[in-house]
Amino acid sequence: MLIHVANLTKTFSVFDRREGVKGALLDLVHRKTRTLAAVDGISFDVARGEIVGYIGQNGAGKSTTIKMLTGILVPTSGELTVDGLVPHANRRAFAKRIGVVFGQRTQLWWDIAAIESFRLLGKIYGVDDRTLAERLDRLDAILELKPLLHTPVRKLSLGQRMRCDIAASLLHAPPILFLDEPTIGLDVVAKDSIRAFLKEINKTFATTILLTTHDLRDIEELCRRVIVIDRGKILFDGALSEMKARHAGRMHVGIDVVEEVTLDVVRAASGGVGVEWEQLGPRRFRASFERSAKSPADLIREVMSRHAIADVSIEAPSIEEVVRTMYGTTNDGARSKARRE
Question: Would the pTM of this model clear 0.85, i.e. be above it?
Answer without folding.
Answer: no
